[in-house]
Amino acid sequence: MSAFAKIQYFPSMPLRFLTFLKSTRRQPHTLMLEVDKRMTKHEIKEYLTKVYDLPPPHKVNTAVFKGKWRRIAGKREVVTFRHNDWKKAFVMWKRFPGEGEGLASK
Description:
One of its GO terms (cellular component) is mitochondrial large ribosomal subunit. By secondary structure, the chain is mainly beta. It contains 1 helix and 6 strands; from the N terminus they run ββαββββ.
């Protein structure tokens, strides 16, 4: 390895799979993930291509959701607390990897 080689460092960035939507006429293939709030769109895209060896996505959208308030009533007191905020990433491909393979390729 040369001294000028690029080193990719990915700290522990948890990604949690939420759901996958197949494409329709209006909407491309969409993968929904729960990601760390500090991750940017570019980091999500790079993380999926480098770590999971997926082709680069067509588009990445993100949304931040505020944590909900909860109340738990006990015998002596009522405890209120708030869940943590979280970020949801929508990763879209025009053509999902592996699509079109199968019977047609044999």
